[in-house]
Each structure stands twice: as C-alpha cells, then as structure tokens.
Amino acid sequence: MFKSSFPLWQPLALMVVLLTLLMVVLTQVFESQLRQQHRERLLQLAQLGAGLVHHAVQAGSEPTPGLLTRLLEGSQARLQILDDSGRVLLDSRRDGSVATQPVSVVPPEVSQALAGGIGYDLRSEANVGRVYFLALSLPLIDRVRVIRIAEPEAVLTGWLMTLRFWALLIWMLGLFIVLGVWRWLRLTLEMGRRDAAASQEVQVVARTRDLAMLQRLGSLMSACTTVGSACKVMEPIAEQLLPGARGSIALIRSSRGLELVTQWGGSWPGAIRFGAEECWALLKGNTHLSRDEGVEIQCDHQTQPGSQLCIPLLAQGEALGVFSLMFTDEGQMLAARSVAESMAEQVGLALANIRLRDNLKEQAIRDPLSGLFNRRHMMEFLESQLALSQRRQEPLSILMLDIDHFKNFNDSFGHDAGDFVILRVAKELTELVRKSDLVCRYGGEEMVVICPGTDLAGALDLANKLVVSVAALEFSHNGQDLGRVTLSAGVSCSHGDPISMEALMKAADEALYRAKRCGRNRVEAPEGAVPPPLRLSTPTLPAQTKEPG
Asked: Rounded to whole angstroms, how far apart are CA atoms 116 and 158?
C-alpha cells in the first residue's frame, strides 16, 4: 500500500511548498500595503491638522486642544503643533496650551519636515513604547509651524497580526484542500489499479475457466457411449466457449462423404451433406481460415459469405470430420481460433465424450443473461427451505411469474430486445423483494420468487407489487421504444403442512396459467384460497398472436 502510493507524496510536498510560498509572498505584499496605508493615514491626519491651523490663523485665532481632540476622535493618534525649534505649542492630549520651553534636541521627524516638508520616524517613548511620528511643515506668513501626528506602533501591529491570522487561516484552508485533492487523487489511482488488476484477474479466470472446460470436455467425452449423444451435447459447450459464433460438426460417413450431425448458434449457413474434397481443412489436414493474410478462399460447402473457420477432427491421424465456425467479423474468428482448435482436438480424440456443458450448468448457480439464480439452484433452495418451514411450522410462498406475450415481443423487436427486457424485469424483481427472498430464472421468460416466512396474503401483496411495478416501467432499447411489458403471476403457499416441492410448484404454475387465461397482467392464487385479487390495467403491447407467451 505505502509503496504503491509513495510517488504521490512528491506532488503533495510540491503543492504544499508552492502554497506556502504563495501565502508568504501575498502576506508580505499585503503587509507592505498596510504599512503604506498606515503612513498615508497619518499624513491625512496631519494635513487635516494643518488645515485647522491655517484656517484659525486666517481667522486671527489659534486652534484649541478640544478642536484637535474632536479631529482625532476614535483614533489612538496624538496631534501636536510645534514651532520651528521643536517646542510643542498645542497638544490634543492636554487641556490647554503647553508652556513653550526650549528643547535641547529637535526630533528627527521635525528636522525632516523643516527640511523637506514631511518627516517620518519610529522610536521608543517613555511609558508608551514604540511610536510612529509623522511631521508636516506648515509655512505661515510670518512663521513656520510643524504639525506632528504620533500613533503607537501597536495600532499597525494589530492590523498586521489580523492580516497574518487570516493569512494563516487561508493557508490552512488551502492545505486542507490540497490534502483533500491529494487523497482523492490517490484513491482514484488506487481504484484504477484495483480495477486493472480485477480486469486482469477476470481475464485470467476466464482463461482458466476455458482451460478447465476443455479438460472437462475431454473427460466427459470419454464417458459418452454413442457419437449421437456426444454431438447433441456439443452445442451448449460450443456456445459457452465460443460466444457469438454459429457452429457445426460434420462427420465422415462410410461413403466418405460428410453429413452435418449437430449445429448451434442459429441455423447453419452451409451444406448439410458434402464431400471431403469440398473442405479445405480436410484437404490440407489443418485449420483453414476463409480469409488469411488478405486472401479470401472459402470452402465449397459454405453457401453464404462470412468469416469461416474449419478445423479437421483428427484421431490417431485419421480424419473423422470437420469442426466449422461462422463469425460475423474476422476479428472474432481470429480471437476464437485457439479455443476452437483446442475444442476440435478434444472432439477428435473421442466424439462420445461431450457432457461438460450439462455438468457445468449443474455447478453454476447464476443465469448468464439475467444474473438471477438458475433453476437448479432454485430447486435446491426450495427443497431446503420447504423442509425448514415444515420443521418450524412456518409459511413458505412461491411466486411464479411470466412475461406476457414474450414470443410476439421477440418476433416484433428481435431477440436482443427480448434479452434486454428479461434483464430489466429481473433487475426490477431483485430490487423489490427482500434480501431473504430468492429470485431465479425458471426458464425462458418465466421467473420464480421463493419467499420464506411469507404467508399467502403477504405473497399476494408482493406479487401485485411486482406486477404493478413492471407494468409501470418504460422500455427503450437502442433508441427504440419497446412499449409496456406486463407480468402474469401465480402464487402458492405452504403453511408448514406436509407438501411436496412438486405439488407446491404445480399449484403456483396452475395459478399462473389461470392468470394467463383470465387476461394476463394480474395475480392469481390457488383456486379457492382467497378472493380474486385486484385486476391491473394492461399497458399497450405489440399485436398478439393466437397463443402468446
């Protein structure tokens, strides 16, 4: 953890240093501005005092301390009027004129004011501490007066401390933001690494699964007793290992001709019977690709254009048949070549040993399309929960649901849209039931919900909720509006009394068919169990056939 995150400390340290330098520079700039403003403020006060003196002289009088005090009201500043020798003539802190006693040393600021108009000094004063002095020369008709403003350094220091406090606060806030951004970046990178590792792990698991399936394939094929039974189980195995491909197996008969014995992934676009001389794989004795290195050479038994892969089925040097695949594009064909050749090798060793798909189905518990639990897991769960409910004398309910008119829906919108509807309905059911309930795909568009601890009334309420919720959904796939989809539901319940799993399922199934016969988009219970539930409005669907789903 630390090693993977260590490089991120370098940009963090850089950001903290840059933030600190920025705050130091900004603080210094603002402090300089504060000092300049302080000096300008003292100058303004001195100019106001000079204006008072000048006005009083023109009026033939002298300013009073009270007038000076009112001028500085609310300020800690002190205003004094001095003559050109530095003697204080009037002071805002005294009630009257001060005695004009000679001074031994003229203050620096007074000397500067007499020489250049303005003087400025900072020095310590008894009982006061450090004080800023600003003196302003005021020439009159027959004499020169000096207006001096004095203010304790503590005033400016207070301003600077306030500025530094806010600068520190802003720096801490900036540091907090930097640390937050750094933490977010670290978490994002770590999540990216975890996702990449998970993706790689998925690929490894998928490859491991393929290898396991191939090994299992060879093992199962050795247990088959006839070529026919082996070819029949070849379809689910091939669809699992080679998704998106149409495939077929043709075996050589005694006449040396080949006959198609199995196909999967849709109708096979090739000849059902053909001669060995019509297949380049059999003629060459190795894999043949219809397009290889930019050259397209298709086998004669292929009746439709496409990316075709033919692999001879060999056993102890003898050709038994051909394993053919058809893909929608060349990339899929190239990606599947390795697995296809491994499969062909297993099939060639013993065509009677293909039982892997059924056993893998028994081991798997999830339906690959809907993500729901599959039928096998449902039966195991129902068996155990039924035994538990009978032992504890607790209710157990089953909801059997079927998508209305699903066959017509597939015919109208295609199987991709049908798969999308199954997936969306499965998601809705999963979100609406309790965590203790089990939702599974029973087969096709039929789904089952097992509700331990739920009586018939609760099961009917849940079924109505599911039917209403699905009917309210809007379905759109690839920009196409699919209209509304409805469910029919049948409910059965065991109240802890002895009943077989088959009887409970049959009761739910019969209730489902009754819901179908009574108009669909509704819920039915076993006949005579409860009054008929509330009928639900049926959304607009595609035109129906005589026997919709």
From this structure: 30
